[in-house]
Specification:
This protein folds into 2 domains: 6-154, no CATH class; 158-198, no CATH class. Helices cover 61% and strands 11% of the residues. The chain has helices spanning 6-21, 29-39, 44-47, 58-66, 68-72, 87-95, 99-116, 119-130, 133-156, 159-172, and strands at residues 27-28, 49-50, 53-57, 76-79, 82-85, 177-179, 197-198. α1 packs across α2 (29-39).
Length: 199
């Protein structure tokens, strides 16, 4: 990471925060990274691929890895492939306009997080942070892809099948499902408006 200075990291992070600030709702990580490339174009080094990982560009992985401290500082939330700023993150973006200061304040927030957690948790996070940048990015991308595929599958699911899935989930939570609406009399897969009941 010698090619990535504190200032450069701060520029990338502030670019991410600017994009998220301009949107009222969380954005998919891939969308954030796509917009960031136009806002803060990659350097020659960031544009290059990892020598031992052909086809894997440094830029996206560096950005993903750099956001770890912001997440632990409570500035950024990553949930099911979506990124969103917290109120603290929005305030930090306004307060620390200099990229170097922004990066260093994020690091301070991360250190506070470490002190507030048990030594075992802190050691675990430190071990994760010491992993290679491309490995961290690959894990994040895999999680995001999985959530996107689940979401797409649910959106395309037949309403009757979806009703059965919901009933199954409710049973799995320990509730008794007394009745599930059958198929409509016409033989279509549209369930009747009667809701699923559980106790």
């Amino acid at each position: 990471m010698a090619e990535i200075t504190v200032r450069r990291t701060g520029e990338l992070l502030r670019g991410v925060f600017r994009i998220l600030r301009e949107n009222s709702s969380p954005l998919p990580a891939a969308e954030v990274l796509s917009r960031l490339e136009r806002l803060v174009p990659p350097t020659e080094f960031e544009q290059s691929e990892y020598p031992n990982r052909p086809g894997v560009r440094r830029y996206e992985r560096i950005v993903r890895f750099s956001t770890i401290q912001c997440v632990k500082a409570g500035w950024l939330v990553k949930n099911q492939g979506l990124w969103n700023l917290t109120d603290l993150g929005s305030a930090a973006y306004d307060q620390y306009s200099d990229p170097v200061t922004f990066k260093r304040e994020a690091q301070k927030g991360f250190k506070r997080w470490e002190r507030e957690h048990t030594s075992e948790e802190a050691d675990s996070e430190a071990a994760e942070a010491s992993e290679q940048v491309p490995a961290y990015g690959a894990l994040e991308e895999a999680e995001e892809k999985a959530w996107l595929e689940i979401k797409a599958h649910i959106e395309e699911m037949d309403p009757f099948d979806f009703q059965q899935v919901v009933a199954g989930l409710i049973r799995g939570m320990g509730y008794h499902v007394a009745w599930v609406s059958p198929l409509a009399p016409t033989g279509t897969t549209t369930p009747s408006p009667t809701p699923t009941h559980w106790e």
